[in-house]
Amino acid sequence: MKLLSWNVNGIRALNSTLDDLFVKLEADIICFQETKVTKEALDSDVALIEGYNSYFNFSAVKAGYSGVATFCKDSFTPFNAQCGLGLTDEKIFTDEDDMNYRQQIKEVFDPERLRQFDNEGRCVITQHHIKNCVTCQSSSCILSVINVYCPMAHLENEERMLFKLDFYKLLEVRAKALVASGGHVLIAGDINVSHKLIDHCDPEDLVCFQAHPSRIWLDHFLFNDRVDTSLIEDDMFVDSFRKLHPGRREAFTCWNTSIRARETNYGTRIDYIFVDYRIASLLSEADIMQDFKGSDHCPIFAELVLQVAPSLKVPALCTQQFLRFTAGKQQNILQFAEKRTKENINTELSSYFSKKPRLVKQQKKLTYFFANNNSDAALSNKSAKPIIKYKEISQSSNKTTAVASNVDKWKSLFKPLDLPKCQGHNEPSVIRTVKKPGKNLGKKFFCCERATGLSSNKEANCGFFQWASK
User: Fold this and answer.
1) Distances (CA, A) of 241 to 76, 201, 286, 347
2) pLDDT of residue 334
3) Which of 47, 52, 89, 144 has the fewest CB atoms within 10 Å, i.e. the most exposed one?
4) Phi, psi of 416 (to 5 degrees)
5) What is the pLDDT of residues 412-451, one digit of tens each?
6) Which residues are tagged catalytic?
7) Element of type H or E holding 55
8) How far apart are CA 284 and CA 304, in angstroms?
């Protein structure tokens, strides 16, 4: 089984159709994060992909924000699916294990906090039947795939940082509860933290790096090879990539596109596929597809030696069950609007053409903007002669100079800036505008044109900076 995860940074911004994309990705279960699509705007060409069934979770906070989607091949159809980690929808997952989990999280989080987590549309869980699981010697073992997009937060924003850490805690409780119920769990997604120094291109503060709250949680959550084997528990999780490639460097999954950081591989590894400890022995491959473009992240994948028995019926959460898709073709708001008869259309057209035509103000010619200053006085005097028309100028040889002067003035508007050269490469710099809120917001500056990279990389940005005006 091949599982793939990718933060697409907008599912409708991908540079190819999903049908073509899935052929290239060659995965059985595909987990997308940051889809940035609303349920109302979901089209059939995104929701209904031939050979797959899909499960979306949408942000209820604001449009074009967050969101995840899981696509399963028909041969990997889940028997159950849910949105969110808080189980705030009482209609789903009502078996004994889930009732126990609900009771467990209510002792940690109040209902409002759980709704805050689920309202951001950050998780979809699909459950699949495993055929003859070799790790637990069971013929009815369950595999839960948690597709998750963890929140981003800066230490300066204490409220959002607490939200992120609480989300991590809820993710851990949910995953371990699923393992405790006797199943296996895969967690795939954007975890929004680089784990070790090897997973970051250029950490600013080495002392504080491992002391970051997000890394402390991740250290606690993941199995560490240095841990005494007698202390290993079944609900520990393993970083699939690092298990198979423990020493690989520059294996990054995310880059800042605004500074062209991907060109110099100046990035971080914040996308992961975690597997529970018992199933980690079934990993056959796990890797990063750094050459695959289309987002500021790249896809990652893991392959496990196991077989899934597809469900004969898709869960209620499947997009195939959406009302506007059930009729065989997409139903949109226009199809529910009142039908307009031919008579109504003719009435509207006759009413439109019977209206009096509007007077359109004639556009001024370019020569108007380059007229001499004394023409302003002439314009203020109603008895003054009108400005000389272009035809009259072209017919008068002694006024050719005036036309040439106007042309020169026009060209001066497009005169290229005198760009200073950067000190590191002696190349023309580029001009940028400060977008960060503060006293310098809107100010322009010159900087090196090259992509950002390590300071030791002579081919990368040299760090040249100069204000465009003092």
Assistant:
1) 23, 17, 5, 67
2) 45
3) 89
4) -65, 150
5) 666 666 788 888 788 888 888 888 888 888 888 888 888 8
6) 149, 190, 297
7) strand 52-57
8) 5
Phi, psi of 56 (to 5 degrees): -110, 150
Per-residue buried b or exposed e for 354-364, using 16+ beta carbons within 10 Å of the residue's own CB? eeeeeeeeeee
* Alpha helices (runs of H) in 110-154, residue ranges in sequence order: 111-119
DSSP assignment of 210-259 equals TTSHHHHHHHHHB--TTS-GGG--TT-EEEHHHHH-TT--S---EE-GGG
Average per-residue pLDDT for the chain: 83
Under 8 Å CB-to-CB from 448, ≥6 apart: which residues? 422, 424, 425, 427, 429, 430, 461, 462, 463, 464
End-to-end CA gap in the chain:
61
Q: Is pLDDT above 90 for 265?
A: yes
- 339: pLDDT strictly greater than 60: no
Confidence at residue 453, expressed as pLDDT on a 0 to 100 scale = 80
The Cα–Cα gap between 344 and 321 comes to: 36
More confident residue, 102 or 391: 102
Distance CA 212, CA 463 (A): 27
Residue 338 pLDDT exceeds 70: no
- At residue 336 the predicted structure's pLDDT band, cuts being 50, 70 and 90, is very low
How far apart are alpha carbons 414 and 405 in whole angstroms? 15
Q: Which helix (H) or strand (E) holds 368?
A: helix 366-369
Q: Count Cα neighbours of 355 within 13 Å in the Cβ-side half-sphere.
A: 8
Question: Where do the DSSP E strands lie in 237-379?
Answer: 237-239, 254-255, 267-268, 271-276, 283-288, 300-304, 307-309
Check residue 290 and give its pLDDT.
95
Whole-number pLDDT of residue 430: 85
The torsion of the CA quartet 159, 165, 166, 168, rounded to 10 degrees, works out to 150
**Distance, CA of 68 to CA of 80 (rounded, Å):** 17
What gap in Å lies between CA 398 and CA 462, rounded to an integer? 54
Q: Evaluate if residue 94 carries a pLDDT over 60.
A: no
| Burial per residue of 219-238, b for 16 or more beta-carbon CB atoms within 10 angstroms, e otherwise | eebbbeeeeeeeeeeebbbb
* DSSP 8-state assignment for residue 200: B
CB 286 within 8 A of CB 240: yes
The reported pLDDT for the residue numbered 414 is: 64
Q: Which of 2, 1, 65 shows the shortest CA–CA distance to 38?
A: 65
State whether residue 1 is helix, strand or coil: coil
Instruction: Identify the band that residue 381 occupies on the pLDDT scale cut at 50, 70 and 90.
Output: low
